[in-house]
UniProtKB/TrEMBL annotation, chain A:
Entry keywords, A to Z: Mitochondrion, Ribonucleoprotein, Ribosomal protein, Transit peptide
Entry superkingdom: Eukaryota
Residue span, Ribosomal protein/NADH dehydrogenase domain: 35-108
Chain spans, region Disordered: 123-152
CC per GO annotation: mitochondrial inner membrane; mitochondrial large ribosomal subunit
Natural source organism: Alosa alosa
Gene3D superfamilies for the chain: Glutaredoxin
PANTHER family for this protein: 39S RIBOSOMAL PROTEIN L43 (PTHR21396), LARGE RIBOSOMAL SUBUNIT PROTEIN ML43 (PTHR21396:SF2)
Location relative to the cell: Mitochondrion
Keyword Cytoplasm carried by entry: no
Pfam families: L51_S25_CI-B8 (PF05047)
SMART domains registered for this protein in UniProt: L51_S25_CI-B8 (SM00916)
Any one of the GO BP annotations: mitochondrial translation
Name of protein: Large ribosomal subunit protein mL43
Automatic annotation (TrEMBL), chain B:
Keywords assigned: Ribonucleoprotein, Ribosomal protein
Keyword Cytoplasm: no
CDD domains, per database record: Ribosomal_L20
PANTHER family in the record: 39S RIBOSOMAL PROTEIN L20 (PTHR10986)
One Gene Ontology term from the biological process aspect of the record: translation
InterPro entries: Ribosomal_bL20, Ribosomal_protein_bL20_C
Organism lineage string: Eukaryota, Metazoa, Chordata, Craniata, Vertebrata
Sample GO molecular function, one term: structural constituent of ribosome
Gene Ontology cellular-component annotations: ribonucleoprotein complex; ribosome
UniProt-recorded name of the protein: Large ribosomal subunit protein bL20m
Length: 152, 142
């Protein structure tokens, strides 16, 4: 729970996404659910209602539906930078699952750890970073302690 | 008598504590009894450090702004006082960032503060019949 004990990263966008064209960072989303269990009821309703609309709205994301005998239904999201995020959707309603899915679509695949600064620039200085000669000509000479001038 | 179950989760509880000690030096990162004390101290320091960080950052900003203003012939309290009087609501973080990355902007802010200071002197030492300065007019937004 210390800053050095936990991992952290700087704020960044994946390859300056959005500066030119926006590319959805979600590569693949797989919905693993069970055909008969009560915990997958929301998942089954979501597949009936919302999945096809979601897939049409996000043409860059592949949606996989895999009904298999499993105790907990899962949503596995894979991103373009290789990160995989798994979310459990046990007992969630169809609306909650669709909200979760939109949240995963809007995320970039970067790790969800402490962000060191809430801002980032590639060009922090416009007028040129300060150096010792910005306000002082080099011909003036080095800075001397005041006692020497008083003595001479 | 001796077959009572003494708790099945000891391994995981120990690992949960040791994971916070993995970056320590020496046996504190391996041995549980030493790690307990070290981790507790680390957390205490982290808690205290959150307050200290705010204080140290502010003193850092103030010393940077003071150095920048002294180079331009002004002093830090004069700069801050006159900027406040001219209703320039820039905080120390932004001022120090400007002083480092935007030296011309900072120079113009220092000149503004100097001008406001001169107006203040004229208003205080003058007779009162002279017109008040431009920068000391307060804008009331309604």
């Amino acid at each position: 729970m210390t800053a050095r004990g936990t991992s952290s990263r700087f704020l960044q966008s994946v390859l300056q996404n959005g500066v030119g064209r926006y590319v959805c960072q979600l590569k693949r989303i797989s919905l693993i659910f069970s055909k008969n269990a009560q915990s997958s009821l929301g998942a089954r309703n979501f597949i009936e209602e919302g999945v096809v609309d979601y897939a049409k709205k996000n043409p860059g994301t592949v949606v996989y539906i895999s009904p298999e005998p499993c105790r907990i239904p899962r949503l596995v999201a894979e991103y373009l930078n290789g990160n995989v995020r798994e979310e459990k959707i046990t007992g969630k309603t169809s609306q909650e699952i669709s909200d979760l899915v939109t949240k995963l679509t809007n995320q970039s695949g970067l790790d969800i750890i402490r962000i060191r600064k809430p801002y980032h620039t590639d060009s922090p200085s416009i007028q040129g970073q300060w150096h010792p000669f910005t306000n002082r000509l080099p011909s003036v000479g080095p800075i001397r302690p005041p006692g020497k001038e008083a003595s001479t | 008598r001796g077959l009572r179950n003494r708790g099945p989760d000891r391994y995981w509880k120990v690992q949960e504590l040791l994971k916070n000690a993995r970056h320590f030096r020496g046996r504190k990162n391996r041995c549980y009894s030493l790690a307990v004390r070290a981790v507790r101290r680390a957390f205490v320091y982290a808690t205290k450090g959150r307050q200290l960080k705010r204080r140290t950052m502010r003193t850092l900003w103030i010393s940077r702004i003071a150095a920048a203003t002294r180079e331009l012939g002004l002093k830090y309290p004069v700069l801050v006082d006159n900027l406040v009087k001219s209703s320039v609501q820039l905080n120390r973080k932004v001022l120090s960032d400007l002083a480092i990355n935007e030296p011309r902007t900072f120079q113009s802010l220092a000149k503004l503060a100097q001008a406001r200071q001169q107006e203040g002197f004229r208003a205080a030492l003058g007779s009162g019949s002279e017109p008040p300065g431009v920068l000391s007019r307060v804008v009331l937004l309604q």
